[in-house]
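FAQ

Q: What does a record look like?
A: Structure on top, sequence underneath. For example:
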């Protein structure tokens, strides 16, 4: 056999050896990570699940849906642990040294793991974009149904049961078949609002369900029914009220059990949550949120234009019917040559009158008509002879110079109304501005979260490849196999990755960075680390030379000691 063919055969054997050594620890690490994350989910929702009488099939269905959403994070941890374990085992058994001595570099040895990691990354991206939105949608709808389901009906002997609203049921003993009961006591508080308190006592009875568990029947024998008619709480009358006792041989009560059944809600009602969207749906939601935020800002600007004359109306999101367009005033229709001799007259219905004779709305209209530009109202010429000695009209003949001079044209009562109107307007503008600011901020935060989740679908997949370049060199450097050192090293890097994800998401929600940058920062930080570790492993160098580090530290202390002695001698002289 020729040397070239022999070398190719050896390379194939190395790839097979690496893959066979990589897959078992990967599957074990992935299963352990998925199990731990599922247990965390189970403890998170245990209060909503416990006591609801859910079957094993429904619980397994919930675990399956939730496990689908945990696949990407479990894959990243599995790739990291398996990479460290694989090369750690090979280095510990001197297989890696034998491969290097045959002229095969570490990079060539890692190639099979890199290819496998690329396949896993593509599968992770597919899960994040296709499978996880569906599983989250199913899980969310099922959890909503479970949370709205009443606890399972449990009739225990010797204890009061309050599962039925308005009823307290107690019986002393129950037969083995769970049907016959003895010494039954029932308190009926369903009619408390009308002042009736009902108590039923019976020697024995039976309880069972009918119509496929839709109704619960309690049939009692040889008992009495006591009714106490009390005064209504809303009534202030006092006096004596009747007490009634009725004996019976057989008494029956029917309870509705529909509240104890699990109702299936249509999952499509929950598909607007960002965790249940694909990439295309997230892109559409991002654009919609941006449009809503811009529309809210324009609405605030248009609201201010009703108070501030210099604020122009923005018609971006205003639809004006064609038949009403001809009534919109044209700003360029003002004759500039006539403005010096013409003024806007305030209509007679809003002209200042005697104190107390004009409301704040009229005063506000007067201010708006006086200060507004001469555009929207017809022009009339006013002469001094037409004023008739009216102080307001005499003032209107002169241009407005100062606000204080303008206010002198109104009576004291009208001035007070004007100031009140101005304060109310400012308060309304402030409230609208604060409300719009909160609304727009919530929209922008939601948009950042949508962008972050969209990019995390792919950055989480890229981390699977990056962890190969971190885990494999670390395994070659530490030269330890098994589950001890590899898991310790892997957990350290994985915790660093999770912390970076959390901090970057918080920074994005505070608008320090964009959602896209926040999603890719962990990858941008871990990739140089992986390249550095791969380079150190290929050079067969230690990650940190302890002897060299100690030598530099001792040299630094010697330098500081000599310098302190020199300063002491100079100060003494």
């Amino acid at each position: 056999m020729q040397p070239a063919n022999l070398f190719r055969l050896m390379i194939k054997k190395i790839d097979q050896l690496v893959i066979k050594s990589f897959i078992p620890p990967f599957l074990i690490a992935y299963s352990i990570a998925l199990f731990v994350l599922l247990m965390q989910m189970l403890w998170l929702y245990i209060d909503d699940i416990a006591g609801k009488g859910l079957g094993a099939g429904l619980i397994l269905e919930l675990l399956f849906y939730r496990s689908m959403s945990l696949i990407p994070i479990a894959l990243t941890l599995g790739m990291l642990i398996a990479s460290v374990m694989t090369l750690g085992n090979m280095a510990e058994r001197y297989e890696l040294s034998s491969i290097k001595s045959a002229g095969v570099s570490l990079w060539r040895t890692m190639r099979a793991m890199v290819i496998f990691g690329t396949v896993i990354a593509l599968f992770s991206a597919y899960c994040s974009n296709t499978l996880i939105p569906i599983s989250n949608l199913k899980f969310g709808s099922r959890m909503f149904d479970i949370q709205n389901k009443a606890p399972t009906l449990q009739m225990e002997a010797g204890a009061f049961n309050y599962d039925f609203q308005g009823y307290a049921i107690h019986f002393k003993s129950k037969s083995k078949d769970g049907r016959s009961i003895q010494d039954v006591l029932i308190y009926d508080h369903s009619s408390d609002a009308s002042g009736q308190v009902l108590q039923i006592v019976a020697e024995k009875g039976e309880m069972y369900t009918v119509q496929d568990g839709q109704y619960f029947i309690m049939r009692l024998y040889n008992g009495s029914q006591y009714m106490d008619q009390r005064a209504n709480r809303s009534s202030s009358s006092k006096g004596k009220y009747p007490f009634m006792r009725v004996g019976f041989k057989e008494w029956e009560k029917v309870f509705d059990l529909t509240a104890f059944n699990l109702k299936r809600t249509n999952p499509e009602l929950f598909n607007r949550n960002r965790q249940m969207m694909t990439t295309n749906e997230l892109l559409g939601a991002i654009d919609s949120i941006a449009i809503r935020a811009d529309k809210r800002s324009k609405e605030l600007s248009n609201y201010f234009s009703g108070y501030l004359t210099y604020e122009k109306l923005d018609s971006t999101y205003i639809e004006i019917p064609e038949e009403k367009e001809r009534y919109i005033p044209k700003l360029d229709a003002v004759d500039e040559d006539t403005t010096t001799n013409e003024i806007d007259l305030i209509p007679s219905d809003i002209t200042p009158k005697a104190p107390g004779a004009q409301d704040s709305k009229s005063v506000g209209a007067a201010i708006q008509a006086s200060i507004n530009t001469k555009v929207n109202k017809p022009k009339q010429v006013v002469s001094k002879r037409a004023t008739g000695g009216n102080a307001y009209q005499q003032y209107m003949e002169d241009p407005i110079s100062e606000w204080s001079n303008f206010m002198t044209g109104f009576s004291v009562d009208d001035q007070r109304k004007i100031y009140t109107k101005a304060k109310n307007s400012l308060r309304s503008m402030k409230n609208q501005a604060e409300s719009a600011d909160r609304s727009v901020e919530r929209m922008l935060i939601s948009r950042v979260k949508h962008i972050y989740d969209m990019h995390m679908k792919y950055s989480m997949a890229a981390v699977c490849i990056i962890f190969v370049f971190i885990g494999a060199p670390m395994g070659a450097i530490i030269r330890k196999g098994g589950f001890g050192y590899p898991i310790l090293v892997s957990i350290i890097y994985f915790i660093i990755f999770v912390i970076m994800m959390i901090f970057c998401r918080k920074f994005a929600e505070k608008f320090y960075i964009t959602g896209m940058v926040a999603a890719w920062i962990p990858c941008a930080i871990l990739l140089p680390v992986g390249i550095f570790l791969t380079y150190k492993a290929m050079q067969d160098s230690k990650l940190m030379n302890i002897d060299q580090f100690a030598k530099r530290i001792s040299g630094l202390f010697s330098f500081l000691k000599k310098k302190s002695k020199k300063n002491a001698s100079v100060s003494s002289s």
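Q: Is there anything notable about this one?
A: Confidence is low (pLDDT under 50) at residues 323-397.
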